[in-house]
Amino acid sequence: MRRGLIELRQSFTNPAELVSHFLWPVLLLVAMYFMRDLTFAGLKLGPVLLPSILGMNVAMGLVSMSQQLTADREDGTLLRAKATPNGVRGYLVGKVVSVSGGLLADLAIFLIPGLFIIQGLVISPRSWVTLLWVVVLGMVATLPIGAVLGSVFTSARSQGLLQLPVLGAIAISGIFYPITAMPEWVQGIAQVFPFYWLGLGMRSALLPESAVSIEIGESWRHLETIAVLGGWAVLGLVLAPMVLRTMARGESGSSVAARRERALQRVA
């Protein structure tokens, strides 16, 4: 826990990381502001976009977790953790604390000004309760999968390939445009991934009941949301310990040195 809190504090005191915390929320707010008056099926897209982007940001914790694990594996941080008692367990708990803490901060940076910029959102005690369980379940569903992916990739360069399928899943998941405007086969693919369900859960929290008309089956489908995100959570929680143990056993000074040599050759 202390390790995670230290890393979280450092991310808000390091100028480069501090900029990254604010850059994307600000860019998304600007884009959302210019799209606020566009309409679909009689609804303004601004109020639909804000909760959808919140859901997308929760799911992007998957990418953050995998990036940090891959980078720490490449530079030997994970090897040093392996060499200390309970080091890998402490490392993983710390990483979950730092990534989830940074994620919650990014959500607040985006949501608080968004509530003032975008009109038509519904804020009530029910809204906050729904936001809470969607965020918590979303992090449990995505962070372990991110740990698995971070263990699979051996370098930050190869880990960058993860961005392509993630961006593809976001594009078809109704984040930036209602999913019902897409072909049915695309809708079916989108519903396999957590991006769509996190966006749907957020929209159910912050939009009026009339907005459900643009959703699949004209329903917020809370039970289905819990089932799909719960399925991803179970999958990640089962796979992550096994994959991490296998990866940690394979770490050695020679493997770290070999990865550093390959990285230096690419730079050269």
- Shape designation: elongated
Task: Tell me the strand percentage band.
Answer: under 5%
Number of domains: 1
> Structural class of the helices, strands and pairings?
mainly alpha
Poorly predicted regions are: none
Percent helix, as a range, is over 70%
Query: How many strands, which pairing sense, and closed or not: the largest β-sheet?
Result: 2 strands, antiparallel
- Report the average pLDDT across residues: 87
Number of helices: 13
Radius of gyration: 20 Å
N to C succession of SSEs: HHEEHHHHHHHHHHH
Arrangement of strands in the largest sheet: 1-2
State the total count of DSSP E strands: 2
| Distance linking N and C termini | 39 Å
Give a quick precis of the structure.
The chain has 268 residues and is mainly alpha-helical.
Structural write-up:
The structure is a single chain. This protein is mainly alpha-helical. The chain has one domain. The protein has 13 helices and two strands, in the order ααββααααααααααα. The chain has helices at 2-11, 15-34, 45-59, 61-75, 77-82, 87-117, 125-152, 156-159, 163-171, 184-190, 194-206, 222-250, 253-267, and strands spanning 39-40, 43-44. It has a two-stranded antiparallel ribbon. The longest helix is centred in the middle third of the chain and has 31 residues, at 87-117. The protein is elongated, with a radius of gyration of 20 Å. The two termini are 39 Å apart. The model has no long low-confidence stretch (mean pLDDT 87).
